[in-house]
Amino acid sequence: MLEKKPIIFLLLATVTILIGTVVTMVAPFWWINDPKLAIASVKPYTPLQLEGRDIYIREGCNNCHTQTVRPLLSDTERYGEYSKSGEFAYDQPFLWGSRRTGPDLARIGGKYPDAWHVKHMKDPQSMVPRSNMPRYDFLQRPLDTSLTERKMKTLKFPYTQDQIAQLSGKTEMDAMVAYLQKLGNDIPWRKAARAEVVGELKNPYQDNMAVLPEAKALYQQNCAQCHGKELKGDVGPALSDLDKPDADVFTTVYGGTQAGMPAFGDTLGKERIWKLVTFLKSHQKR
Amino acid sequence: MTQQEGYADDVVKGFIIWSLLWGFVAVLLGVVISLQLAWPQLNLPPYLSYGRLRPIHTNAGIFGWGIGSFMAFFIYITQRLTKTRLWSPGLARVQLWLFNVVIALAAVTLLLGMNRSKEYAELEWPVALLVVVLWVIFAVNIVMTIVKRREEQMYISLWYVLATLIGVAVLYLVNNAGIPVSLTKSYSAYAGANDANVQWWYGHNAVAMVLTTPPLALFYYFLPKSTGVPIYSHRMGVIAFWSLIFMYLWTGAHHLLWTPVPDWVQTLAMAFSVMLIAPSWAAVFNGYFSMNGQWHQMRENYQAKFLIFGITFYGLQTLQGPSQAIRTFSAFIHYTDWVPGHVHMGTLGWVSLVIFAAIYYTLPRLYRTEIYSVPLANLHFWLAVAGQLIFSISMWIAGVQQATMLNAANPDGSLHYSFIETLIELYPYWYARAFGGIIYFVSLIVFIYNIAKTINGGKAQALAQKA
Ligand code: HEM
Ligand code: HEM
Question: What pTM value is reported for the model?
Answer without folding.
Answer: 0.94
